[in-house]
Amino acid sequence: MRIISLGGINLGKVKSDLADNLSSFSQGGFRTIFHQIDQLGIKKGVDQIGIDKFITQCALFAAGSGVIAGAGGLSTMLIGVPLDIINLITQQFRVTLAISYYNTGKYELRFEDFFKIVAASLKVDTSMSVSKGVMEEVAQKLLLTLGSKTAKRLIPVVGGVIGGSINYLFIKRVASSLQTLQPEARIIRI
Fold it and tell me: Residue 9: beta bridge partners?
């Protein structure tokens, strides 16, 4: 196996460390982000500006952190990418909650019910319960989606445009996927 290196940085090690950290993050991080989100605020936002504008707003917030993470090339990526990932997950969760509210009229969700919707939108089989394995699989899918585009962010300034565009399109695709889920995947028991 060939080890890829860039300016003394072992990219294979960076990718491995990122995967380990994301797996650890999946254990409590998803739940922490979920509990930090104001579900009533999302309801009010959707009621005030509509679901399409709310989705666009979330996509723009995600694009902002993508621009910042990629604008300075490698130097901003080292600090910016972890923060970008947290913001991207937060925006994905906000969009998921907004679309769930829009489709069902219910804005207060339990984490387990919510995470089943997230997993379904990423085409992860949730079976009966949200387990450690399901959370790790969601984390891996997110890593693959984001990691495959990270190398393109290494070029200063251009990396910011690429990072912002990738994040914006990711949130729009998540929203589109959620809006086309089968009705039974959107049913939430409270």
Answer: 6
Question: How many residues are listed for the chain in this entry?
Answer: 190
If DSSP states are collapsed to H, E and C, what string results for the chain?
CCCCEECCEEHHHHHHHHHHHHHHHHHHHHHHHHHHCCHHHHHHHHHHHCHHHHHHHHHHHHHHHHHHHHHCCHHHHHHHHHHHHHHHHHHHHHHHHHHHHHHHCCCCCCHHHHHHHHHHHCCCCCCCCCCHHHHHHHHHHHHHHHHHHHHHHHCCCHHHHHHHHHHHHHHHHHHHHHHCCCHHHHCCCC
CA dihedral 15, 4, 164, 134 (to 10 degrees): -30
Tell me the whole-structure pTM to 2 decimals: 0.74
pLDDT in the model for residue 1: 44
Q: What's the Rg (C-alpha) of the chain?
A: 17
Average pLDDT, the chain: 77
Condensed to tens digits (0 to 9), the pLDDT of residues 70-119 reads: 777 666 667 777 788 889 889 999 999 999 999 999 989 998 888 888 87
pLDDT attached to residue 39: 94
Q: How far is CA 49 from CA 21, 37, 98, 127, 187, in A?
A: 36, 18, 11, 35, 24
Calpha distance 95→116 (Å, rounded): 14
